[in-house]
């Protein structure tokens, strides 16, 4: 709901959602680091009950980003997604012979932080590292280290021919 310090991130909170933290984290782990449009498709197609409240929080974070930052939905990426444990509601279930058992109903708090990748912290355009850009960066790093350690050779560990510990019968 509030803009973060660097003016490129906006977040939304969903508090006191009646769901276990473990069930919500199972879904949150799937959407962390993905784009906004891809996240909506994933959440609509996943068969878990936790998807709907998370969908609402993601949608709210995108609405906050478009209203506060004026950003386009295609430029939004989930930079941080976390699920924290909320209060536990304690209820009583009546049983036979006048007894009662305590039932714990857990709640959780969901926080989604969205980042606009078209705006950088310095006012320049910012390219999100897709797989293509990541491969390009790896190749540049290999070119930098190409001439440094040429005299050293590394022998590959061959688990099938070295007669290791697994060959004992």
From TrEMBL:
Domain of life of the source: Eukaryota
InterPro entries assigned to the protein according to its UniProt record, in alphabetical order: Ribosomal_uL22 (IPR001063), Ribosomal_uL22_bac/chlpt-type (IPR005727), Ribosomal_uL22_bac/org-type (IPR047867), Ribosomal_uL22_CS (IPR018260), Ribosomal_uL22_sf (IPR036394)
Region Disordered: start-end pairs: 145-169
Broad class of where this protein is predominantly found: plastid
Subcellular location: Plastid
GO cellular component: large ribosomal subunit; plastid
Coiled coil ranges: none
Compositionally biased tracts (Basic and acidic residues): 145-159
Residues spanning the membrane: none
Keyword tags: Plastid, Ribonucleoprotein, Ribosomal protein, RNA-binding, rRNA-binding
Family recorded in the similarity comment: Belongs to the universal ribosomal protein uL22 family.
Quaternary structure, from the entry: Part of the 50S ribosomal subunit.
Role of this protein: The globular domain of the protein is located near the polypeptide exit tunnel on the outside of the subunit, while an extended beta-hairpin is found that lines the wall of the exit tunnel in the center of the 70S ribosome.
UniProt protein name: Large ribosomal subunit protein uL22c
Biological classification of the source: Eukaryota, Viridiplantae, Streptophyta, Embryophyta, Tracheophyta
């Amino acid at each position: 709901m509030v803009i973060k310090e660097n003016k490129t991130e906006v977040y939304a909170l969903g508090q006191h959602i009646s769901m276990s933290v473990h069930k919500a984290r199972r879904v949150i782990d799937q959407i962390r680091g993905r784009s906004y449009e891809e996240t909506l498709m994933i959440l609509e197609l996943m068969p878990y009950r936790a998807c709907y409240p998370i969908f609402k929080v993601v949608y709210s974070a995108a609405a906050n980003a478009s209203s506060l930052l004026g950003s386009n939905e295609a430029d939004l990426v989930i930079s941080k997604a976390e699920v924290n444990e909320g209060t536990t509601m304690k209820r009583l279930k009546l049983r036979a012979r006048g007894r009662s058992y305590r039932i714990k109903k857990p709640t959780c708090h969901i926080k989604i932080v969205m980042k606009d990748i078209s705006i950088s912290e310095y006012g320049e355009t910012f390219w999100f590292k897709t797989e293509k850009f990541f491969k390009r960066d790896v190749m540049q790093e290999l070119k930098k280290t190409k001439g440094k350690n040429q005299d050293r050779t590394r022998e590959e560990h061959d688990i099938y021919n070295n007669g290791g510990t697994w060959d004992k019968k």
